[in-house]
């Protein structure tokens, strides 16, 4: 089984590294640390067992890949400047299944349009993993996937991939309704990711302290549910309280957007908040809380970009 | 004429220093730099002419003041932890006129309740002045006051004070309707101060760039106007566009809240945004944009306080 992991950051290296452990031939493209990873592989400290992932090939970009991948797994951040189609294009062959392990909603549209003959799988990752040094990762929480065919419905290729992950020790749930799970994850991500950053570095506990911030999280989630409904995805209302309770009872932690922010990386303002706002505006849903948060988050991200924070 | 300036920061020292230049006997209480100011006075670089302000007395707090002030001028920040009544109480004598040169709305209520027999004047300052070193100030913009009797109506004491300021070179407009001007200043302060901070350091130009942030400024101002109406203050709707245009055409600058933020000082979240939100909620005005901004700003300020930023 041949796999190409494009933009192999912490998330990609962990999941694809597990597949490699079970014998898959995994090549990667990386943005940084290429020499080091080629020499030593990724050293991964993991709650599921430490391991070293030595990719079959360590490439700078997809055009250097000369094989036909069975699965091309894209794990880049979803940022306005990143053209994901161009990123994977050179390695997409007629039979290549394209797998997107990424945050946000609406992220598959451009890929589906560019590669109408390829099957596209959409995956949600629940994992706490981060780069702690060049070539070194720390996997400290969860480590689960939910995968389904983009657009919904059954897929043998998807079942095969889930089975491979399961065999490699990665819980991977097969679904014929990935849109639901994507919106469900977004429901949590929108309030907690955005407010953790805009509040100047809030831990989850600071947003669930029965304060105004918690009330705002509720309002944001209600608006996301309303927009999801217009996109034909039914999120039950009780998820609002479930998310608050779950987060309040969990040990305090930093959201992934806050970790990105603190490491001078761009935040996924558009994929996580902007797209919901655009859908909401398209369908005339009343979303003043979402619009307020998005306007500030976008200004925050733009200001950092324009003042050189992301070049550090 | 005896004047006591309580909490003489940059704003207080500038305005009261001008009165001292014209012969008023001005004592001050300061929170910092006491020895230095007692020895050398405030050295003030000013677009209206540099000068040194040597107070008649430099005190640590109002209880050290043994005179009867004609005017007690309070220029402290309006913060939840600061008990302004306790701050001035020891120096409030039967005939003392209390003058508040402060930001926000509703700031006079507690003072009026504590000193029912004293006349209270409420003043709005338009000035760009900041502390550039211990005992050294830089006055680089405007420098104007609007003063009126708290609660409205005519006041001879207020006219006298305005005349003193005018004689000292400080434009000081007398009004019988200070509430209007206080809300009018707030109308600008709410969007631009709050978003400059929450956007991670936005200049005024970044908030008036015909972007989502500008649209958000408009929504916030519309909500402030609605709340003002319920408080019997009529702000004309065209102030919204006037504020946007004025700000867009002015050279880019940092708001006072952003300057406070960058200098590790608390932001006046409650006086500037919180009070409008409370009034809006009391009168059942729909203010989702204000509530969102206030929740985040309050969380931001609380997080900084709790993590020791303000002890630096």
- Number of helical stretches of at least 4 residues of chain A: 11
Q: Could you state the oligomeric state of the chains shown?
A: homodimer
Helix content of chain A: 40-55%
SSE arrangement of chain A, N to C: EHEHEEEEHEHEEHEHHHHHH
Largest sheet of chain A: 10 strands, mixed
Spans of chain A with pLDDT under 50 lasting ≥5 residues?
none
Shape verdict of chain A: globular
Mean pLDDT level of chain A: 96
- Tell me the greatest interface: A-B, 29 and 29 residues
Number of strands of chain A: 10
CA radius of gyration of chain A: 19 Å
Structural class of chain A: alpha/beta
Distance between the termini of chain A: 38 Å
What does it look like?
Two copies of one chain form a homodimer. With 312 residues, chain A is of the alpha/beta class. Helix content of chain A is 43%, strand content 20%. Chain A has eleven helices and ten strands. Chain A has helices at 10-21, 34-40, 84-88, 109-114, 156-167, 178-198, 212-230, 239-249, 256-262, 269-282, 288-306, and strands spanning 2-6, 25-29, 42-46, 51-53, 57-59, 71-74, 97-101, 120-133, 136-149, 172-175. In chain A, strands 1, 2, 3, 4, 5, 6, 7, 8, 9 and 10 form a ten-stranded mixed β-sheet that branches. In chain A, α3 (84-88) links the parallel β6 and β7. The longest helix of chain A is centred in the middle third of the chain and has 21 residues, at 178-198. The mean pLDDT of chain A is 96. At the A-B interface, α7 and α11 of A face α7 and α11 of B.
């Amino acid at each position: 089984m041949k796999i190409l992991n494009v933009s192999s950051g912490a998330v990609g290296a962990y999941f694809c590294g597990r597949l490699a452990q079970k014998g898959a031939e995994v090549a990667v493209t990386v943005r940084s640390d290429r020499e080091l990873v080629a020499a030593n592989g990724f050293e991964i400290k993991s709650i599921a067992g430490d391991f070293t992932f030595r990719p079959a090939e360590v490439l700078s970009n997809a055009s250097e890949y000369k094989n036909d991948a069975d699965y091309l797994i894209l794990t880049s951040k979803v940022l306005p400047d990143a053209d994901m189609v161009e990123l994977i294009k050179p390695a997409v062959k007629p039979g290549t299944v394209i797998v997107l392990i990424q945050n946000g909603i609406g992220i598959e549209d451009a890929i589906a349009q560019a590669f109408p003959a390829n099957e596209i799988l959409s995956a949600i990752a629940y994992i706490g993993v981060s780069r702690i040094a060049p070539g070194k990762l720390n996997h400290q929480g969860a480590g689960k996937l939910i995968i389904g065919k983009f657009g919904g419905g059954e897929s043998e290729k998807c079942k095969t991939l889930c089975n491979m992950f399961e065999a490699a020790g990665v819980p991977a749930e097969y679904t014929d309704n990935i849109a639901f799970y994507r919106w469900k994850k977004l429901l949590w991500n929108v309030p907690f990711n955005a407010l953790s950053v805009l509040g100047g570095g809030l831990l989850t506990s600071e947003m669930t302290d029965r304060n105004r911030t918690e009330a705002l999280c509720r309002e944001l989630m209600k608006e996301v549910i309303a927009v999801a409904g217009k996109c034909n995805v039914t999120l039950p209302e009780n998820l609002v309280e479930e998310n608050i309770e779950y987060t309040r009872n969990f040990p305090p932690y930093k959201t992934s957007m806050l970790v990105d922010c603190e490491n001078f990386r761009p935040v996924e303002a558009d994929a996580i908040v902007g797209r919901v706002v655009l859908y909401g505006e398209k369908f005339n849903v009343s979303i003043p809380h979402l619009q307020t948060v998005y306007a500030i988050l976008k200004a925050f991200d733009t200001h950092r970009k324009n003042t050189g924070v992301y070049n550090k």
